[in-house]
Amino acid sequence: MVADVVRAAAGPRIHVRGAVKSFSGRVVVNVEDLVLGDRPIEGLIGPNGAGKTTLMRMIMHSTSLDRGRVSLLPPGGGEVVLSSLPAHRMARHGVVKSNQVIMDFDKLTIWDSLLLAVAESRYEQPQRILSERTVFARHEAEIRRHLDFFGFGDPSAFAMSAGEKKLLDIVRCLLLKPTFLLLDEPTAGLPDDLTEKVMTVVRELAATGTTVVIVEHDLNVIWNLCDEVHFMAEGSVILRGDPQSIREHRTVVEKYLGEGHV
Amino acid sequence: MTLDWLDAFLITGLFEVVMVIGLALLLHLQLGLARIANFGVVGFWGIGMYVFGVLYVQVDWPFGEPWQFLACAAAATVVAGLAGLLVGWLVADLDTDGVLVGTLGFATAVQILATTQDDLTGGARGMGGLGFPYDIGRVKDNEFLWLVLVTAVVGAILLYVWRVHRSPYGRLLIAVGSNEPLARSLGKPTFRTKLWLFAVASAAMGFLGAMYGVMVRFLDVGNLGVGVTLAAMVGLVLGGTARVWGAVVGVVLTVGLFDIVIQSYLPLPREWYTQAIPVLREAAFGLTLMVVLLFRPLGLLGDMRRDRLMGKIHGR
Ligand SMILES: Nc1ncnc2c1ncn2[C@@H]1O[C@H](COP(=O)(O)OP(=O)(O)O)[C@@H](O)[C@H]1O
Ligand SMILES: [Mg+2]
Questions:
Q1: Could you tell me the pTM of the whole model?
Q2: Residues B66/B130, Cβ–Cβ less than 8 Å
Q3: Which of A18, A140, A242, B13 is the most buried (most CB within 10 A)?
Q4: Nearest-angstrom CA–CA distance, B240 and A104
Q5: Residue owning the nearest CA to atom 26 of ligand 1
Q6: Model pLDDT for residues A18-31, shown as the tens digit of each residue
Q7: Atom from ligand 1 closest to the CA of residue A54
Q8: How far apart are CA A130 and CA A112, in angstroms?
């Protein structure tokens, strides 16, 4: 059911219906009816193994669904059935996800990675072998702004540390100009100052109409940032509400916070 | 033109080296950048050669040279490209083993077709009647000019590959090769990318096949064995799959050393040439491949250095 809370400058929402995924016979995600993005920044929390990452991957169609349907509801109306699109079409619809587990191109430098993310597909054709300068000129300023903001070193080098790769993953997402951004534990392993910067970026995005959904184990980030929190356990979202009410909810305290996650 | 220093052996040897460099460069785009191990190189090359030969010999063309050559070579290129599209479509989503079996199977199918369709291709008897699209005098002069032309074509391929490394397209190929799901999540149509890579590389391989047909002037299904693929693969792996110059260095050291130095300049008994040498060659190439993969898997030139390249073209 589409919830009644609608934000002022509404961003896109994602509607998940009857989505089921199992691995070797074990049901890992079973989401009856879930709308993400009624509020600009939403959190998705829950114990390890609850299925948060899998659900996000199902939305991106990088994991196939056993059953069910995922749709994008753009603010202007209409519906895009994401679950019937191939994974590479998500970005074109503005749906973008960062990865919990570090994902990188081992042969590509930081410049490469970021230029790859921004390059329009018309420049990536086999006959367009002279278009590097054009692509670089079009996007250099934007890329440098991100590099400076996060304090990357030499962009012609490879991303070395885990933290750098994690940030690179996030910057790639930002360069895709998402309208619906999913962040899977974006600040895990980052020092406090960079966590702070990621949070700043998320707020800026939300202010300009992008919907952001964050999975995060650092609950301070969740309580600070989110307008709405979904609590997921054993494959289903069993509770939703504003941060304050989720924080104090008995089930959450017992199932999750009680385990020492505070 | 006095070409006394060039004997017929040397011209054929050089032609072989240059052509295999061309094939290895195209294979480099697939294997070195996109990490698709195409073991069917000879199939695309052979399709080009035979489509060219059959059209050239069997069709009564209303126009003379060089148009007849150009028309037949264009058709051969297109057909090889379409074959690439088809094979690419079949193997693009398979894992390495699947690609190996699929492309090898394709090459075998080409050889079988060329052998069994003998009313068109001459089958095992072979097919003559091809010739140079010009006549500038002695056979040797004609062959030498053809060597110059194929060198120009391969030079163009080298230039193309060199540019690919410095283009968004090359970056996309490398991304597809090193982390396909991640490339997909950035909106890159990885399947289509591989498909077109196959089409373009195969078309060029087909064109080289047509040029080879002209040079030998006699098509022999024996050429469609694994030899050509092996030569391109070994050369590329020895030189370094990930480097532009890997194909050049590696093929010169393998095919060059074997087909030119050993065959032309070593005093080997005559009777070896038909029997022992081809076998020795494949054994030596196979051995080289194993040794390189064991002791220097990245080849003589080593790994791609995008950091140096990016530093050079875009700075810090
Ligand atoms: N590719 C996979 N194959 C098998 N099991 C998987 C796979 N991906 C996730 N799982 C399992 O699904 C469950 C949910 O995982 P995940 O979605 O990563 O949870 P969360 O992100 O909430 O910690 C876990 O028990 C995990 O082991
Ligand atoms: Mg997770």
A1: 0.93
A2: no
A3: B13
A4: 23
A5: A49
A6: 999 999 999 999 99
A7: 17
A8: 16
Provide the ipTM.
Answer: 0.92
Q: What residues does ligand 1 touch, defined as CB less than 6 Å away?
A: A 23, 28, 46, 48-54
The string over A162-199, giving b where at least 16 C-beta atoms fall within 10 Å of a residue's C-beta and e elsewhere, is ebbbbbbbbbbbbbbebbbbbbbbbbbebeeebbebbb
Give the chain A residue nearest B201 (alpha carbons): A126
Characterize the bridge pairing of strands A236-241 and A228-233: antiparallel
**Percent of chain B surpassing pLDDT 90:** 66
pLDDT tens by residue, B268-309: 777 777 777 778 888 888 899 899 989 888 999 999 899 999
Number of Cα atoms under 13 Å in the Cβ half of residue B69:
19
Work out the minimum CA distance from B35 to partner chain A, whole angstroms: 12
pLDDT (0 to 100) of residue B261 = 81
| Three-class secondary structure of residue A157 per DSSP | coil
Taking CB atoms and an 8 Å limit, are B175 and A108 in contact across chains? yes
Q: Which of B67, B36, B30, B72 is nearest to B54 (CA)?
A: B72
Shortest Cα distance, chain A CAs vs residue B123, angstroms:
36
CA B103/CA B204 separation, integer angstroms: 17
Q: Select from A64, A107, A114, A172 the residue whose CB has the most chain B CBs within 10 Å, as the one to mutate to test that interface.
A: A107
Q: What is the pLDDT of residue B60?
A: 85
With bands split at pLDDT 50, 70 and 90, how would you rate the model's confidence at B311? Answer: very high
Beta-carbon contacts below 8 Å between A and B? 130
Mean pLDDT, chain B, integer? 91
